[in-house]
Write a structure and sequence with these properties.
The chain is α/β, with parallel strands linked by helices and 255 residues long. Helix content is 35%, strand content 11%. The N terminus is likely disordered. The structure holds iron/sulfur cluster. Iron/sulfur cluster (SF4) binds next to helix 2 and helix 5.
Length: 255
């Protein structure tokens, strides 16, 4: 499992330019992502949230930086979300950790046998994922959970780079929400996947098998995002989430 970086936020903003090329290992990529300052609005927001804090977390030091992926270096399953939550991963430094969406996601991963524990509270809580890596399409917490199109595109090279490194072992991509679906399809196309025409549409339970170079295939599964908007309204239930992640777990083991 990639080591988590615990460097406190640097008060001196630096410019950076995400690059999809030239990466040979995930640890270096994770470090570079964590040190990215390419989007002025998101840099200002993540640092403002980390400075002001939510009252219930006032005693904590927020991460306040981009959040890299979490999970083994050679995953068979990728779970692609939207972006870190302001008081979740932007606080704890680990994706989907410390917020209600993560509560749902990791509890389900545990139920289907892909996580060693059902909770994800802080970065040193002992959570380990089996063959599964979780990441977000945009690596900084955006205001209202809505990155702009420009921010999405600026961050896309980080997704391409990560996908390029882990793709040889990946058999399944679970896209959380329409944003994760589109970002995954676009990134997979950039690393050589053949995208059917018309372009496959997102839906909960949607599934498409994509051909990759060298006779590789990857199965893309759509899943409603386990956001409070979806789980509080029961648009997404535990059974629905378990169904998709269970299919991913089964596909991972299929010969
Ligand atoms: S959203 Fe992505 S590209 Fe923009 S600052 Fe964060 S890590 Fe860098």
């Amino acid at each position: 499992m990639a080591a988590r970086m615990t460097t406190p936020p640097d008060p001196t903003p630096r410019s950076d330019s995400p690059s999809a090329d030239g990466w040979s290992d995930l640890a270096a990529l994770d470090a570079a992502i964590s040190d990215c300052f390419a989007c002025p609005r998101l840099v200002a927001w993540r640092e403002e949230v980390a400075r002001v804090k939510r009252a219930s977390f006032a005693h904590e030091t927020y991460w306040g930086r981009p959040v890299p992926g979490f999970g083994p270096e050679h995953p068979e399953i990728l779970v692609v979300g939207l972006a870190p939550a302001a008081h979740g991963a932007n606080r704890t430094g680990r994706i989907f950790t410390g917020d209600r969406s993560g509560d749902w996601l990791f509890a389900s991963l545990h139920r289907v046998g892909l996580a060693n524990q059902p909770t994800s509270v802080h970065a040193d809580d002992g959570l380990e994922l089996a063959g599964t890596r979780v990441l977000s399409a945009v690596r900084c917490a955006p205001p209202d959970n809505k990155p702009t199109t420009e921010e999405r595109d600026t961050c896309a090279p980080w997704l391409d780079a990560e996908l390029g490194l882990v793709l040889p072992s990946v058999r399944v991509v679970v896209a959380l929400g329409g944003f994760g679906w589109q970002a995954s399809l676009t990134a997979l196309a950039r690393v050589g996947a053949v995208i059917p025409v018309p372009r496959p549409k997102f839906g909960h339970g949607a599934e498409v098998v994509l051909a990759l170079p060298q006779d590789q295939q990857v199965r893309l599964l759509g899943c409603y995002h386990p956001s409070p908007q979806n789980t509080f309204t029961w648009r997404l239930t535990e059974a629905m989430l378990d169904d998709v992640l269970g299919r991913a777990a089964a596909a991972r083991l299929r010969p």
